[in-house]
Amino acid sequence: MEAVLADIREQGIELTYHLGDLVGYGPFPDAVVECIANGRISGVAGNYDSTVALRYKHCGCAYEDPWQEELSHLSVQWTVGAVSPETRRFLAALPFRLDEEGVLAVRFRRVTYDVERAAAAIESSALPRAFAEQLRSGDVRSGRPGSAS
After folding, report:
1. Which residues pair with 42 in a beta bridge?
2. What would the pLDDT profile of 58-98 be if each residue is shown by its tens digit?
3. Are 46 and 19 within 8 A, CB to CB?
4. Which of 24, 34, 49, 59 has the fewest other C-beta atoms within 10 Å?
């Protein structure tokens, strides 16, 4: 992680964001959170982050099979016991939505959703209104408004 962040700095990239799940996937959750905090990297909470912060027993993950579900529970259980109080506070403070510097960051799970409600949320953010129009029309193949790809 430190090497990736160093490379980002060397390339002159000014803004870096994370999309959550900082913990739950590796043996050093405190070190990961410390690196993100010290780097002042903004981001949003992933389901593992909020699960660990609030000591939930289940991360709300979708599983492909029972073995994967069992591993997830073991990972959450271990991580909840392994993190420091400082890490827990950091994770608990992560927002579920970030809208700054013209960047909208959210976490989602593929579910049926209310298109009009989602489009209204886009329109109330800093995103171009064309994104909402694409969502309403069903043309969400590209990430750019007006793009034909």
Report:
1. 17
2. 777 777 788 888 888 899 999 999 999 999 999 999 998 89
3. yes
4. 34
What's the chain's average pLDDT? Answer: 84
Q: Are the C-beta atoms of 105 and 43 separated by less than 8 Å? A: yes
How would you classify residue 13: left for phi > 0, otherwise alpha for psi between -120 and 50, otherwise beta?
A: beta
Task: Tell me which residue of 128, 125, 89 sits closest to 106, measured CA to CA.
Answer: 125
| Tokens matching residue 116 | 């009009």
d(CA 77, CA 55): 9
Residues with Cβ within 8 Å of residue 84, at least 6 apart in sequence: 30
Quick one: average pLDDT of 24-38? 94
Query: What is the average pLDDT across 131-149?
Result: 60
Question: How distant is the alpha carbon of residue 129 from its chain centre?
Answer: 23
Answer whether residue 55 shows pLDDT above 70.
yes
Query: Closest Cα partner for 15 from 42, 44, 47, 35?
Result: 42
**Helix, strand, or coil here: 119?**
helix
Name beta bridge partners: 43. 18
- Cβ-proximal residues to 4 (8 Å cutoff; 6+ apart), any chain: none
